[in-house]
What we know:
Elements: E1 2-5, E2 12-15, H1 30-39, H2 46-54
Antiparallel strand pairs: 1-2
Amino acid sequence: MKEKICPKCGKTFECAHSTDCWCMNIKLSKEAIEKIKQLYPDCLCEICLKEFESAN
């Protein structure tokens, strides 16, 4: 696991950077994925990523 800083909220989180990562279980629409890519340069923490999931 790699420790990263969420570009949205600034909190640290762990990223597996693979298909085994926790983020693979979060369901995002194609539109949400594109918006995240446009707004943020790197992975988001679980809390921030789930905000995009619930917005779908």
